[in-house]
Amino acid sequence: MQGTASTNYLKVLVHLRKTSQTAYKLAKFNKCILDHLGLSGDGFVECTLENNQLLLQCPDSENSNNTDSSGPNEKSVQYRIMHPPFCPIQHLDEEGSAALPHEIITRGVDVGVAVLLESSDKHLLLTRRAAHMRTFAGLWVPPGGHVEKGETLEDAVLRELEEETGLLVTLEERQNAHILGLWESVYPPLLELGQPKRHHVVIYLHITLQRTSEELQKQFKLCPEEVDAAVWMSVDLIKLAVWNTKFAEQYQSQSTGNVSQDEVYITLVNKEGEHAASTIAASILKESDESSDLNFERITTGSRFALSMWLEQHLKDSGLPETSQKELYSKYISHVVTEDKSTDSLPKLRPKM
Question: What's the longest Cα–Cα distance across the chain?
Fold first, then answer.
């Protein structure tokens, strides 16, 4: 249920502090998380969930070298946090902020969780949000949603995984769960699409299963109230989803494998919960050089960020030429903010009313 809201659970909200010498304060809906922490576009934070609060702080200087985008879930570990250069909250001017409804501006910053579920044959699961969902409808994301009172991040993401897909993770498989990184998410994703209605920090976890994607496919019980399709992304398709067209073509010309795909097999679910095999054009899941494609079926920007973090680790583990996560990510947002144009120079904007 990523990006949705309900009154049936206690909201877990984000609290921030810049150093360990100051007190945590509730993050404000109309204030950019990264700006508050003094981070320019991306950086590292310490992240803990305590007393139903997500606590984020910049690392103290003596711990500044202890960074890990995919290490064990420990307090001392720092995780990458990022947002897109077009983050609506960051570019909201004072007039636009003042125009936000009271019930929106006072809601705080919610916490979301999502899981990159990896099969034993190196495929990652994405689901397409049902068309009737209030936020990010019809877009491809990893399974995920909100954190309920008393839950750990793992508890929350595994509950959401089961609710959306019917898949269960064994206790043994759960032992390798770890945080990949954090994403500041706002809906709508562009000010031109309207006033911000949702502001989240989404925590992406990674869990590797001991079952193949074919085996897991047979265990699907997709929930039509949440999703209407699911896909297992191969490593090659993930590369095409993360890298921009020029970079992907360059990779493909140097690769002996078959990277190009015209169609991708997916599983559909109807309103009665019946499953059917189908295909979609691979171009839907590939990186696009057109920023206007934010209005159409696609993988969300935050999901691409998570995929790029996974891909970085995969390339490293496979002994392939190492490419930094930031470089991977910048490959597909370069069409939004060019290399010679800093995000700091972008003008503040008012949302479309």
Answer: 57
Which of the 8 DSSP states describes residue 92? B
DSSP 315-353: HHHTTPPP--HHHHHHHHHTTTS-TTS-GGGSPPBPPP-
Residue where the block lists tokens 């770890």: 178
Beta-ladder partners of 128: 140, 229
Q: Residue 155: which pLDDT band, with cuts at 50, 70 and 90?
A: very high
262-293 tens-digit pLDDT: 889 999 999 999 999 999 998 898 865 444 55
Q: Model-level pTM greater than 0.70? A: yes
Position 159 scores a pLDDT of: 97
Q: Is 104 left (phi over 0), alpha (psi -120 to 50) or beta?
A: alpha
Confidence of residue 9 (pLDDT cuts 50, 70, 90): low
Q: Let me know: does 303 contact 127? Beta carbons within 8 Å.
A: no
Residues with Cβ within 8 Å of residue 103, at least 6 apart in sequence: none
Q: Which amino acid is at 313?
A: Q
Bridge partners (DSSP) listed for residue 92:
349
The CA-based angle 329-235-85, given to 5 degrees, is: 15
Query: Cis link prior to 142 (omega < 30° from 0)?
Result: no
Q: Is 72 exposed, middle or buried (0-12, 13-18, 19+ CB in 10 A)?
A: exposed
The tokens 């304060």 sit on which residue? 25
Beta-strand runs (E) in the chain: 13-17, 25-26, 42-50, 53-57, 78-82, 110-118, 124-129, 140-141, 144-146, 178-187, 198-208, 227-233, 263-269, 275-281
What does the mean pLDDT of the chain come to?
Answer: 84
- Measure the CA–CA gap between 141 and 20, rounded to whole angstroms: 34
Q: Is the dihedral of CA 148, 153, 154, 160 positive or negative?
A: positive
CA-CA distance, 42 to 32, in Å (whole number)?
12
Rg from Cα positions in the chain: 19
d(CA 43, CA 273): 42
CB proximity list for 133: less than 8 A, separation 6 or greater: 3, 4, 226
pLDDT of 351 strictly over 90 = no
- 3-state class (DSSP) for residue 261: coil
Kind of pairing between the strands at 144-146 and 25-26? unpaired
